[in-house]
Amino acid sequence: MCSSKSFYNRDLVVLLISHALLTLGAYTFLALIILMSGQRGALSLFTYAAGLPLIGACTSFFVERRRRNSSCIISITLIAIVQTLWQHTFKADTAYASYTLPLWTLAIGMLFGLSNLILQGTLITDVTPSASRQRAHRSTLTIVLLAMLLSPFLAHVGYNTIGCSAPLAAAALTTLSALFVGFVRFPFRSPEDKVTLLSLDRFLYLRKPLLAAGIFLTSALYAYMATVDLSMLSSMHITWKNAIRLAIATAIYLPLLHALYRIYLKGLQHCMRSTIHNTFWLVMQTGCLLGIAVACSMQ
């Protein structure tokens, strides 16, 4: 059993901070485009969700063919660049930026998915003692949820403070995430002899479909309820009813998420756990995004 000291080592803490910043930057940007583009922004969440797994099959190729953290840094940096370019496009031609928004969110979704699959499935795994990796992966799920809950508040504060320049703040958070990944040094490892461009390794586990469907539906329902309450709280239309309902829903969903994660891992080989975790994250994120998209489209 690893001690608390060996579990929370410097490199792991740095990567968990990077993970929080990456999620904050992405979801703050999503909240901002809804504020700035209205209904079209809400509909673009569907393309964002669709983009998450699109290049996930290339994860092992990027990890093995480049230094383990450089692919992650590059993909996170590209997210910040796309966020910045959309902000400049919006200021120059609002109608064009809104009309092409699904393409922008599709690109960000693809890069966000790849960045997380590398960061969680490879980098965090590499810096965590073997006996503590399940605990570290559960920590990333908690970080994702808390960052998602905080992002609407940051978006409203940013939009009310600096207006249409607020996406630059989201891009700054994303850039900080890349910098934190760069603080961790990973030893060079010779690539495997046979690494194909497309692979399910570190990407997708195809078994246990019924459990995956349960994770998806649970996440979608929670995200729908949380979005309705957060839209009231973050816009300062604060009611005790919304706050209490959000707190109760989160207090139920987070332990349930961890319990489902343990069940999902049960009976699997140790070498498969990074792939399992990435699959769990993709299913949870897709469910949450679709729940958010439905809630925002109906408002």
Q: How would you characterize this protein structure?
A:
- The protein is mainly α and 299 residues long.
- The longest helix has 30 residues.
- The protein is globular, with a radius of gyration of 19 Å.
- Helix 5 packs antiparallel against helix 9.
- The protein has twelve helices and no strands.
- 77% of the residues lie in helices and 0% in strands.
Beginning-to-end CA distance, first to last residue: 49 Å
Biggest sheet record:
none
- In total, the number of strands is 0
Low-confidence spans: pLDDT under 50, at least 5 residues? 1-5
The helix content is over 70%
What would the principal axes of the Cα set say about the shape? globular
Give the helix/strand class: mainly alpha
Rounded radius of gyration (Å): 19 Å
Strand content: under 5%
The average pLDDT is 86
Q: What pattern of helices and strands is seen along the backbone?
A: HHHHHHHHHHHH
Tell me the number of helical segments per DSSP (H or I, 4 or more residues long): 12
Helices and strands in order:
Layout: H1 4-7, H2 10-37, H3 39-51, H4 59-65, H5 70-92, H6 94-99, H7 101-126, H8 133-162, H9 166-182, H10 209-234, H11 240-265, H12 273-297
Summarize the structure.
The protein is an all-alpha fold.
Structural key phrases:
globular, single chain, 299 residues, mainly alpha, 12 helices, disordered N terminus
